[in-house]
Amino acid sequence: MKQFIVLGLGRFGSAVATTLVELGHEVLGVDINEEIVDILKDKITQVVQADITEEKVLKELGVKNFDAAIVGIATDLETSILVAMMLKEMGVKYIIAKAQNNLHAKVLKKIGVDKVVFPERDMGARIAQRLITPNIKDYIELEPDYNVIEIEALPEFADKTLSELDLRNKYGINVLAIKRDDVLNISPLAKDLIKKGDFLIVIGETKKITELAGKVNH
């Protein structure tokens, strides 16, 4: 018997969770929607209502103690990526994530998600029966219209918060993580300070990121 955690209990997540229970495994299901949690409370080993975008919540749930984690979010690309990154950083043994499209899938694969699925092509009940583990780690690179890249912070970014820099409005990019001395700050807060020598992992339109990267290189 194995133990699984399913994050996001929409149609896909609930199908995976209930099938795993039917196959004789233990499942912890997590969703922010109280109604969904109530519906599934008698169908899954344990269900909790929680905001999985909070790093401390994932730690409290003990995600790294499970044999595998299934990320059932797909409609919000940024949230899906951030949750997957946090799970990877916390040392989860095997991660499966639902993708909305090919671009989303490429990001998930590049950040180390072990298996990316498209519910339309792979039903949750089938996925639940194929949980085995390889491991991938790479920097993130996408094409043609969007990119996720690691760049060194510009000198003028030093000693300013993300809120002060307002990179979304100025450059059309979102900061997914800040790397300082090989320590990764996943899903940084608006109040987090950028220091000289920091590296930023950002997502945005390729032309916008190229423009910013050009400033870094000069």
From TrEMBL:
Pfam families: TrkA_C, TrkA_N
An individual GO BP term: potassium ion transport
Gene Ontology molecular function: monoatomic cation transmembrane transporter activity
Record domain RCK N-terminal: where: 1-117
Occurrences of domain RCK C-terminal (ranges): 134-218
InterPro entries: NAD(P)-bd_dom_sf, RCK_C, RCK_C_sf, RCK_N, Trk_Ktr_HKT_K-transport
PANTHER family: KTR SYSTEM POTASSIUM UPTAKE PROTEIN C (PTHR43833:SF7), POTASSIUM CHANNEL PROTEIN 2-RELATED-RELATED (PTHR43833)
Protein name: Potassium uptake system protein
Lineage: Bacteria, Pseudomonadati, Atribacterota, Candidatus Phoenicimicrobiia, Candidatus Pheonicimicrobiales
